[in-house]
Specification:
Elements (H helix, E strand, L loop, with lengths): L2 E6 L8 H8 L4 E7 L12 E4 L3 E3 L2 E3 L3 H6 L4 E5 L5 H8 L4 E6 L16 H11 L2 E4 L2 H9 L7 E3 L17 E5 L8 H13 L7 E5 L5 H10 L6 E5 L4 H9 L1 E5 L3 E2 L2 H7 L4 E4 L3 E2 L12 E4 L4 H11 L1 H18 L2 H15 L2
Parallel strand pairs: 1-2, 1-6, 2-3, 6-7, 7-8, 8-9, 10-11, 10-13, 11-12, 13-15, 14-16, 15-17
Antiparallel strand pairs: 4-5
Helix pairs in contact: 1-12, 6-10, 9-11, 10-11
Pfam families: Glycos_transf_1 (PF00534)
GO molecular function: glycosyltransferase activity
InterPro entries: Glyco_trans_1
Length: 353
């Protein structure tokens, strides 16, 4: 018999929709996604949607009593692991349905290193013990919770990923790529300076740098490109959301470089056969852990190394194209949307066994 499952989040992200559709295709799950954003316009979605708005008190959020009424209609509820949502905390203490928390599981922010020490970990472990199961983005978090004495059989992993389009064979790779919101924390100007330095040290035809994204630094980047007269070498695209266009740009990329952050762009790059280059302590929600240094990408220890890495891309692109082949194999074998969806399905089957 199929189980009625409620997934609760603040916003229905477009990149999550393919994952939810795969989950909803499972014969044992009737999936409803409750969120506080605009209803999806995709009429082919296989899951139901419920719009439920939250309220705020300072940094805390909560739902009205209609939330409890909604939850009571389901066999299990999957909540994002938001520590400041009072309604989620209340469910952990008292409920009549099965409860699963889904999230990174450790500290992750623009202002601190991944899994840096924090008192909030004590709350995380408490909630994990109170839950019927946990879903993490990575094995790293699962192993950490096991070491804290939380039962391993209730801890599951949904390896964070994104959907990509099929990749043609024999594509011509001749560019360098950056993709992401243009914020100072991404270290975009460190990338620009290193690219400029590599240009000065290279006598041949350099690879163009394509920058995809919008954000607070967009105008400053545009001014910087003009100041150094690099319009023929650096293309500032702005935001691109059409997957077919993104596929074109990734298919022509030798490498994707994001010095300061390694998020879902790591998986997007891997899916299109592109190695990912970032700082070994870059901001991440755990996606950086997918990178094997000099295997499917590069984790540099010092920003001064970035000049040399870009110069090496100019001189020996085949080295990085081979890394991209490794990245594609890793994605296909370990990080497809179906693999991510199966982690969710396994957790649901566990709590409903």
């Amino acid at each position: 018999m199929s189980k009625n499952i409620l997934f609760v989040t603040y916003k229905l992200q477009s990149y999550r929709i393919p994952i939810f559709n795969l989950i909803a295709e499972d014969n044992g799950i009737n999936l409803t996604v409750a969120h506080s954003s605009k209803r999806s316009e995709n009429k082919e979605n296989k899951f139901d949607e419920v719009i439920i708005n939250f309220k705020k008190i300072g940094k805390f959020t909560y739902y009205d009593k209609e939330f409890n009424e909604l939850v009571g209609q389901f066999d299990a509820v999957v909540c994002m692991f938001y520590l400041f949502n009072l309604s989620f905390l209340k469910l952990a203490l008292r409920r009549k349905v099965k409860l699963i928390f889904w999230g990174i599981g450790v500290r992750a922010s623009y202002n601190a290193r991944f899994d840096s020490p924090t008192f909030m970990n004590n709350i995380r472990y408490f909630l994990a013990r109170r839950s019927d199961a946990m879903l993490f983005y990575s094995d790293y978090a699962r192993n950490k919770y096991i070491k804290k004495g939380i039962a391993a059989d209730k801890l599951f992993v949904m390896h964070n990923t994104v959907e990509v389009l099929p990749l043609e064979k024999n594509v011509v790779r001749d560019n360098i790529l950056f993709i992401g919101s243009l914020y100072k924390q991404k270290k975009i100007f460190e990338l620009l300076e290193s690219y400029k330095n590599a240009l000065g040290d290279f006598d041949g035809k350099p690879k163009r740098l394509h920058i995809i994204g919008k954000g607070a630094e967009f105008d400053r980047i545009k001014e910087w490109i003009g100041k150094y007269k690099l319009e023929n070498h650096i293309v500032l695209h702005g935001a691109i959301f059409e997957e077919a266009r993104l596929k074109e740009l990734f298919s022509s990329a030798i490498a994707c470089i994001s010095p300061g952050q390694a998020g879902l762009s790591v998986l997007k790059s891997f899916g299109y056969g592109v190695p990912f280059i970032t700082y070994e302590h870059a901001i991440t929600g755990g996606e950086r852990l997918n990178i094997t240094n000099n295997g499917n990408g590069i984790l540099f220890k010092d920003f001064k190394q970035l000049d040399t890495i870009i110069l090496e891309i100019f001189k020996d692109p085949n080295k990085f194209i081979k890394m991209g082949d490794n990245a594609k194999v890793f994605y296909d074998n370990h990080r497809t949307p179906m693999i991510m969806a199966n982690g969710f399905i396994d957790a649901i089957n566990y709590v409903n066994a």
